[in-house]
């Protein structure tokens, strides 16, 4: 038996997958074994033994280490599984009764954003909720109901068959969007289907060319508005992205709420006019 910090651990019992996965995340976070040990309140020797497969961590220890690395709930569940424990954090359908308070909160945010667009997306950038402003605005350019469901925001923006032909500054927006995909990936590291979506995005015609576009003359704006050419004229929006605080469900943690705001007075006027016209329609 070996003494590892505050507990006793057995030799040669940890699955190699656990040690390898923990080490990958530690390196992605830029942490040494000592730094992780200090954060988790264990010895560096114990962290070393877990990574090498010489220690069998308890369920609580796996959660402590994954919490110290600030792993997304999905990845904490993955660590538990490879360690031989059941997942702790549920992954519910957004329509589940337990998530009713969250759905109500999301609905309030979307309604409050009117008459400007607002959407809710999951980790795969799939549209899960949208307000009337989003339906009105994007409906000027594409038939949302005709798109493969659930609609995917990345495909909508980068596919020549989507809203891309209507984006006047697409060469600026495309690289910023893909960089945002990487940055907003759960845990800051694209894995699995999110990594596949980034690979798909890079295969769209002209996307890699957009990376070579020079910054506009006169310098960069503080924000990067998206310039849309619509039947109602030019409209410029920038957006804010919000997440739910202290989620304990995988689904809720991975949601992103994006609210679009007019970047100039003419866009605000056009959005309000569009809302008024639609309210008088059939």
Tell me about this structure.
This protein is α+β, with helices and mostly antiparallel strands and 282 residues long. It folds into two domains: 2-82, 434 Repressor (Amino-terminal Domain), CATH 1.10.260.40; 97-280, Beta-Lactamase, CATH 3.30.450.180. Helix content is 45%, strand content 13%. The chain contains 13 helices and seven strands. The protein has a five-stranded antiparallel beta sheet, sandwiched between helices. A two-stranded antiparallel sheet has the order 1-2. A hairpin with a 5-residue loop joins strand 3 and strand 4. The longest helix has 16 residues, at 265-280.
Structural topology:
Blueprint: E1 2-4, E2 7-9, H1 16-28, H2 33-40, H3 44-52, H4 59-68, H5 73-82, H6 100-112, E3 118-121, E4 127-130, H7 132-139, H8 153-158, H9 170-184, H10 192-202, H11 207-210, E5 226-230, E6 233-242, H12 250-253, E7 256-262, H13 265-280
Antiparallel strand pairs: 1-2, 3-4, 3-7, 5-6, 6-7
Helix pairs in contact: 1-3, 2-3, 2-4, 4-5
Structural class label? alpha+beta
Number of helices: 13
Q: Number of domains in the coordinates?
A: 2
Q: How confident overall, as mean pLDDT?
A: 87
The CATH topology of the largest domain = Beta-Lactamase
Low-pLDDT residue spans: 1-14
List how many beta strands DSSP finds: 7
């Amino acid at each position: 038996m070996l003494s590892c910090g505050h507990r006793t651990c057995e030799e040669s019992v940890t699955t190699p997958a656990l040690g390898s996965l923990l080490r990958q995340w530690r390196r992605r976070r830029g942490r040494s074994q000592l730094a992780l040990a200090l954060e988790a309140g264990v010895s560096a020797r114990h962290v070393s033994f877990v990574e090498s497969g010489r220690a069998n961590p308890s369920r609580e220890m796996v959660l402590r280490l994954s919490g110290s690395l600030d792993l997304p709930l999905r990845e904490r569940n993955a660590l538990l599984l490879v360690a031989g424990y059941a997942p702790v954090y549920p992954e519910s359908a957004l329509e589940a009764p337990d998530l009713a308070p969250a759905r109500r909160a999301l609905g309030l945010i979307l309604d409050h954003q009117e008459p400007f667009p607002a959407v809710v997306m999951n980790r795969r950038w799939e549209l899960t909720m949208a307000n009337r402003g989003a339906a009105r605005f994007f409906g000027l350019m594409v038939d949302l109901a005709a798109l493969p469901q659930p609609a995917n925001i990345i495909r909508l923006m980068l596919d020549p068959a989507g809203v891309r032909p209507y984006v006047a500054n697409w060469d600026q927006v495309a690289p910023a969007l893909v960089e945002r995909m990487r940055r907003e990936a759960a845990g800051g590291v694209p894995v699995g289907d999110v990594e596949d979506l980034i690979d798909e995005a890079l295969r769209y015609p002209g996307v890699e060319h957009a990376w070579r576009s020079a910054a506009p003359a006169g310098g960069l704006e503080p924000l990067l508005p998206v310039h849309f050419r619509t039947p109602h004229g030019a409209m410029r929006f920038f957006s804010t992205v919000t997440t739910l605080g202290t989620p304990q469900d995988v689904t809720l943690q991975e949601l992103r709420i994006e609210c679009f705001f007019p970047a100039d007075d003419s866009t605000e006027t056009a959005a309000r006019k569009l809302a008024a016209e639609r309210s008088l329609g059939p």
